[in-house]
Amino acid sequence: MREIPINMFAVLGAAIAKIIIGALWYSPILFLKDWLELSGITEEQMKQGMIKALAVEFIGSFLMAFVLAHAIRYEGATSTLEGMAVGFFNWLGFVAVVTIGNVTYERKPFKLYLLNNGYLLLSLLVMSAILTL
Predict the structure, then answer these.
(1) Is the pTM of this model over 0.85?
(2) Are 127 and 64 in contact (CB under 8 A)?
(3) What pLDDT, on a 0 to 100 scale, did the predictor assign at position 68?
(4) What average pLDDT does the chain have?
(5) Do the domain assignments include residue 1?
(6) Domain count, the chain
(7) How far is CA 17 from each of CA 21, 23, 45, 102, 108, rounded to the nearest angstrom?
């Protein structure tokens, strides 16, 4: 396996960007009310495990950014648009396909799928742009 140089500051920045996007996306000014209603979770339930959830989210975001950086380097993307294309196709081929099970098997509303995947798509596009720069 060839060695791929990865800028760990960019990986950290991309992970933090994903968390910031999530904080805004699922905030009262954007989609918190819709998400609570569609997911069947109360605000109290959401707040109960927030510290643990944020820790897991940070680790997952860092791992996602690290793997995405490798995908971008393997593809040879050098421009922001090329990097974002890598992010889009990773979302389409892995995230969108895997999370559709939440709708089909768990019988969650399709609107919840769209809401969550909108966040994940935007996150991957922004993360890819950061990692390509």
Answers:
(1) yes
(2) yes
(3) 98
(4) 95
(5) no
(6) 1
(7) 6, 10, 25, 25, 27
Domain carrying residue 116: 8-132
b (16+ CB within 10 A) / e for 103-117: eeeeebeeebbebbb
Assigned domain for 79 exists: yes
5: left (phi over 0), alpha (psi -120 to 50) or beta: beta
Q: How far apart are CA 8 and CA 65, in angstroms?
A: 9
Residue 1 binned pLDDT confidence (cut-offs 50, 70, 90): low
pLDDT digit string (tens) for 58-93? 999 999 999 999 999 999 999 999 999 999 999 999
Kindly report the number of other CB atoms within 10 A of residue 36's CB atom: 15
Average pLDDT on 6-22 reads 97
- Cβ atoms of 61 and 15 closer than 8 Å: yes
- Tokens representing residue 83 in the block: 């990097």
Record the tokens describing residue 108, joined without a space: 């969650």
